[in-house]
Specification:
This protein is flat. It has helices at about 1-15, 35; strands at about 25, 45. With about 50 residues, it is of the alpha+beta class.
Amino acid sequence: MLTDLDETLKQLLIKNIPIKNNEVDIQFDLPKRDWSAGLSRPTINLYLYDI
């Protein structure tokens, strides 16, 4: 179920924000210090803390 929600949110962003899918990563990961150190390009992170 959360995978479907993640994909829906990703598609909404792609359709409504003028970004190209191959220019910006869209992720749903817990933002930890080591996570941010591993980013290689602009990233929108939609970690869902509490649903």
